[in-house]
Amino acid sequence: MSAHLDSQGRPVVVVTGMGVLTSLGEGQADNWAALTAGRSGIRTLRRFPTDNLRTTFAGTVDFIPHDCAPALCEELAARAIAEAVDEAALGGRGHFPGPLFLAMPPVELDWTQRLALAAAAPPDDPAAVTYGDLLRAAASGRFTALHERVLFGSIAEHLADRFGTRGSPVSLSTACASGATAIQLGLEAIRRGETEAAICAGTDASVTPEGLIRFSLLSALSTRNDDPAGAARPFTRDRDGFVMAEGAGALVLESLAHARARGARILGVVEGSGEMADSFHRTRSSPDGKPVIATLRRALADAGVDADEVGYINAHGTSTPENDKMEWHAVAAVFGERAPHVPISSNKSMIGHTLSAAGAIEAVFTVKTLREGRLPPTINYVNPDPALPVDCVPNVARDAAVTRAISNSFGFGGQNVCLVIAAEPR
């Protein structure tokens, strides 16, 4: 069998470029330095009034000016993709020889209701601050242009034009698993022989009054307003909810044959993916973890490896009571007696939950973990939960030579994706 094919006769798919942007900073270097130092990017919100909100903090990207969430969503993606394309050195920014798969939040607005809300709200009300620009645009005749700007598919179209990708760009949303789904779609397209390369990205800028209110109504957010940096506490006894955050991650995937033919530097290998939706509840995942267990096993089978060959797990690790318990049960079921000894850390303890972007951002960090031989910590781990005997790399990064890892992504409504990522082709 060709060295460029996997054990199932499919093209081996490798990572040749990456980009990332979070509340910790822009680019791989700044993010990795902050992440391994255990620094938090979560802070009190200053972007809009929070007087009547239950949660008043988030992991925001405050160093990029913008006039609305969709504009920030696009700019975050553009910067992450630019870094990834530059590192891959494949075709230049305006001539990428493959498709774009973009994970993003459902930003298309209900225009009539939003405009009515802005018109009725006092000038300093969060609704007026958020939607006042839409009202002013409609009044001045610019409504059509602004509406086009934030249609769900338009952001990917703008990015495809900017980077010269091939074919129609794919916009997708599978809740908090979206970023991993984008990578899965790129992996499958290359395996099927539809393309030799793809850009897989996730972006999210949902930190708005409406976003905070909606998640608060679900009792999903931490309310530790007096301690933003310490609010995200995955796997602890006193975890009380996740922290909303913004960011973007991007990976350039290529077939191994294509990458080697052009002498590209190989950063990692996407060996397999597993996917399963559990249809348990509109927002909750099945508490018994069975769909996640199946997703993990499918990912391992797709990669053609055993659980014993995995040395690290980049956890979904949201810091909600249900998710962390469910994730531990799934890992314990798949890894058996090894489970308490497999390092499984959560980046969300430092950057918060970047929602649609999380799977892509955390895949970037997983590749960095393999390349650098250093496991990022789970910070704020002060009060362990005895029901979750997980090695979460507590509080301080750890040097470890790891050759294969899993990146977990579990979305609202039970949309689950797990990726198996290796340091080198076999």
UniProtKB/TrEMBL annotation:
Keyword Hydrolase (UniProt): no
Entry protein name: Beta-ketoacyl synthase
GO biological process terms held by the UniProt record: fatty acid biosynthetic process
UniProt keyword annotations, A-Z: Transferase
Lineage: Bacteria, Pseudomonadati, Pseudomonadota, Alphaproteobacteria, Acetobacterales
Listed Pfam families: ketoacyl-synt (PF00109), Ketoacyl-synt_C (PF02801)
Parts forming coiled coils: none
GO molecular function terms noted in the UniProt entry: 3-oxoacyl-[acyl-carrier-protein] synthase activity
Annotated signal peptide: none
Domain Ketosynthase family 3 (KS3): 10-423
Organism expressing this protein natively: Acidisphaera rubrifaciens HS-AP3
Chain segments annotated as transmembrane: none
Pathway membership, UniProt: Lipid metabolism; fatty acid biosynthesis
Family: Belongs to the thiolase-like superfamily. Beta-ketoacyl-ACP synthases family.
CDD domains for this protein: KAS_I_II
GO terms for cellular component: cytosol
InterPro entries, A to Z: Beta-ketoacyl_synthase, Ketoacyl_synth_AS, Ketoacyl_synth_C, Ketoacyl_synth_N, PKS_Beta-ketoAc_synthase_dom, Thiolase-like
